[in-house]
Automatic annotation (TrEMBL):
Coiled coil: none annotated. Residues 175-307 form the MoaB/Mog domain. Its EC number is 2.10.1.1. One of its GO terms (molecular function) is molybdopterin molybdotransferase activity. Keywords: Magnesium, Metal-binding, Molybdenum, Molybdenum cofactor biosynthesis, Transferase. This is Molybdopterin molybdenumtransferase. One of its GO terms (cellular component) is cytosol. It holds the Pfam family MoCF_biosynth. Belongs to the MoeA family.
Length: 341
């Protein structure tokens, strides 16, 4: 890389070799141009206002690329669907969510591409919930200029894959079966439906209908069947998931003929959750801790179900790492370690 003096009129597209200060009394004092900035046509007049007839620019060696251009090229290659890119600045580009959804990160590939020292790609966690406009990752070029061969090396590792994508939400109709003799008989007021309504507001989905049944296996199975018939796209049961003789909900779900993915998930709170699929419809058996705790395993699984993701037994086992909630005084989820793999 070489430093050259050139007339400002010839500076468009060239790279500034050092910071250049502008002072406008009562208005501005600072580096109007910084080392590494690329000059565009609008900048010529500003440079003249600053008294510059000539400036120092960096001349790129053959086979090298400016940090901003390289960051742009790389950022475009690593993004999949529903992600937008910021402008390049100081060799860095931020990636943001174009719409609400679940972030998908190819973690292994992320580690592979970061084996090139000149390219630094930083990511949020796989499977986190993002609102439109949320930042999720950064792409930075380490030196001011990077050799083209490093970009080729990066492309060879990436192939036709990408690192990041956002799976959008689809609002689904949810059928809820509340179980428990104490609720059915009216001894206590149901807390499941109000809790779930709050969760639907936060994550999405809408209540199709809810049915309260006693702790009777056949009644649980029949209520699920009725809600399925009515067009439920997700089925949820509340309560009766633990070890007492009256905890009969898992049996009620099994008796529908649904395929059980797993009963018992290594996440706290929420160990006693069951996930099954019944003709492709997810069935979630929720333990009663969901009505007591602010955030549980439900909040890790349900938003992903809204994207149409199909969970395997292994996906549920993977939740064990990071699946321990700290019960903070003020809950910051999802900006915390809960559910981060
Ligand atoms: N010895 C063990 N005890 C418990 C275990 C265990 O593994 N071994 N598991 C614990 C876990 S984890 C959970 S979570 C809880 C609750 O599990 P259940 O889903 O079986 O809850 P229930 O027995 O049905 O009810 C517990 C409690 O919550 C009230 N409840 C239930 N449904 C409603 C509702 N719709 N509205 C309001 N309140 C409701 C119910 O009246 C009980 O007071 O079990 C641990 N125990
Ligand atoms: O389903 Mo329970 O967490 O684990 O309280």
């Amino acid at each position: 890389m070489e430093i050259k003096e050139i007339p400002v009129e010839e500076a468009v597209g060239r790279v500034v070799a050092h910071d250049m200060t502008q002072i406008i009394p009562q208005e501005f004092k600072g580096a109007r141009f910084q080392k590494g900035d690329v000059i565009d046509s609008k900048d010529i007049s500003t440079l003249k206002d600053m008294g510059k007839e000539h400036i120092y620019v960096l001349s790129l060696d053959e086979g090298t690329i400016h940090e901003d251009d390289a960051a742009c090229q790389i950022a475009k290659k690593v993004v999949g669907k529903n992600i937008v890119l910021s402008e390049a600045n100081e060799g860095k580009i931020n990636l943001k969510a174009e719409q609400k959804g679940i972030l998908k990160v190819d973690k292994d590939l992320l580690l592979d591409v970061n084996s090139i020292d000149e390219i630094l790609i930083t990511s949020s966690h796989d499977n986190i919930f993002l609102q439109a406009g949320d930042s999720l990752a950064g792409v930075r070029i380490n030196p001011l200029t990077i050799e083209e061969r490093k970009l080729k090396q990066f492309e060879a590792i990436l192939g036709d894959q990408n690192l990041f994508g956002i799976e959008p939400f689809v609002d689904k109709k949810v059928g809820v079966v509340v179980t428990g003799n104490e609720v059915y008989s009216g001894r206590i007021e149901d807390e499941f439906v109000p809790t779930l309504q709050r969760k639907f507001k936060r994550w999405g989905g809408e209540l199709l209908d809810s049915i309260i049944v006693p702790d009777e296996v056949d009644e649980i199975t029949e209520a699920l069947s009725n809600l399925k018939e009515s067009g439920a796209e997700v089925l949820i049961t509340g309560g009766g998931m633990s070890v007492d003789p009256d905890d009969l909900t898992p049996k009620g779900i099994r008796n529908t003929g649904a395929e059980i993915v797993k009963y018992g998930v290594p996440v706290l709170p929420g160990n006693k959750l069951m996930l099954a699929y019944w003709d492709g419809i997810p069935v979630l058996g929720l333990p009663a801790c969901v009505i007591f705790e602010e955030i549980t395993v439900f909040d890790l699984i349900y938003p992903r179900l809204l994207t149409g993701e199909e969970f395997t037994r292994n996906d549920l086992i993977e939740l064990s790492y990071g699946g321990y909630c700290y019960h903070c005084d003020v809950c910051q989820f999802p900006q915390c370690s809960f559910g981060k793999i």
